[in-house]
Write a structure and sequence with these properties.
Length: 382
């Protein structure tokens, strides 16, 4: 029997942790789940603060409410926390029952992108717009793919020594359908993340390395072909490699350069919360893809390391819970989800912190000292 919480007087820390664990569907009194909840809430709160800071200037410049984007983000965050608590109360078998409905809904939503409900943003047709809200169905498709693939693999554990059971229907047609819709929308970045998710599911599901390796090679070849057949992608790769014949600081390298300006300006402890200079229309998508650079500018190296530390704690805590889980389906889902979250975070952070190419006059090229002092040395155009 589990001890009842005291009705009066001071509530002990252990009692609070036990109660939080019960809210998260854990009756064992394990303290790891409250840690996961705390890290998730801190990351969400930090994200809301930075979105508010990074988006306010551009919103005012466009004649919009400066609190519009932060409020929408807060609404989705609150909805996500509510769904998190709801899913935590579900039994594993209930989530398994959702596998096929979730996959079907994801395919339908991805198909709707190519109807009048779809919207093209920055050349990628991967958004739905209705009722004043915009939704990216490929994000929901990632979770649906994980749950569905985990359900398939957990049932096939005794048959995975045969390659056909690892390929059908996991890769063909399931994975290819999801990736195909995303590729048709010209979103190579998201399609590569989905490939990473499929690889994680296969790895944690116990698929033989032979199948795993062949699928990885085919995915790499496909990604290279998609990159090589797009002029914009080739230009970006050429700029990063320094193959551009002219100064690219005002071309496709503009975003990368100003991202470096932001990070270099932050120094050790940042210029102060809300005091970013690059958010004043110097970095496109400052509140979106390049939010990490704004965080680095405002909170400095200390802030960026704190975020990396939080993701590390989250991953370790989740894998500690997974290590005590005996259900195969639960282990595959949990392992794949945390790989998705941390993997996507690493990809985004790497994208905005990658060293500049030789064709860009990056402030961090000469020495780390120059990078930390860049807040007093702005380019003439600024």
């Amino acid at each position: 029997m589990t001890a009842k919480l005291p009705l009066g007087g001071a509530v002990r820390r252990d009692d609070v942790l036990l109660r939080i664990g019960r809210w998260l569907g854990d009756e064992s009194g394990d303290r790891t789940r409250p840690v996961i909840l705390a890290v998730v809430l801190v990351l969400a709160a930090l994200g809301l603060i930075e979105v508010a800071s990074a988006s306010s200037v551009e919103s005012v410049a466009a004649g919009k409410n400066p609190y519009d984007l932060p409020l929408k983000q807060a609404m989705w965050t609150a909805a996500g926390v509510g769904i998190m608590f709801g899913l935590a109360r579900l039994r594993t078998r209930h989530i398994r029952w959702l596998a096929w409905p979730l996959l079907g809904a994801a395919v339908v939503a991805l198909g709707l992108v190519f109807t009048p409900l779809g919207m093209t943003v920055n050349g990628n047709r991967n958004w739905l717009s209705f009722g004043g809200f915009t939704v990216q169905p490929s994000e929901f498709a990632k979770l649906a793919l994980i749950v569905w693939a985990a359900a398939v693999l957990s049932r096939k554990q005794g048959l995975l020594h045969e390659s056909k059971h690892a390929v059908v229907p996991l890769l063909v047609p399931g994975g290819l359908i999801i990736i195909g819709f995303v590729v048709l929308g010209h979103d190579l970045g998201t399609s590569m993340i989905i490939m990473m998710i499929l690889a994680a599911v296969m790895f944690y599901g116990g698929v033989r390395m032979k199948v795993f390796g062949v699928a990885g090679i085919l995915a790499a070849v496909g990604a290279l072909i998609l990159a090589a057949t797009s002029g914009n992608r080739v230009s970006r790769i050429s700029s990063w490699l320094g193959a551009s014949s002219a100064d690219d600081s005002q071309g496709v390298g503009y975003q990368a350069l100003h991202g470096q300006y932001a990070l270099a300006s932050g120094g050790w402890f940042g210029v102060g919360l809300g005091q970013s200079r690059q958010k004043w229309n110097w970095i496109p998508e400052a509140h979106n893809d390049f939010i990490f650079t704004i965080l680095g500018e405002e909170l400095g190296l200390a802030g960026t390391l704190m975020v990396l530390g939080l993701f590390t704690v989250l991953a370790v805590a989740v894998f500690k819970v997974i290590a005590r889980t005996e259900d195969t389906f639960a282990r595959i889902v949990s392992s794949s989800v945390i790989t998705w979250i941390t993997g996507q975070a690493v990809v985004n952070i790497a994208m905005v912190t990658t060293a500049c190419s030789p064709s860009l006059a990056c402030p961090c090229r000469s020495s780390p000292t120059v990078a930390l002092r860049w807040s007093h040395r702005w380019p003439a155009s600024a």
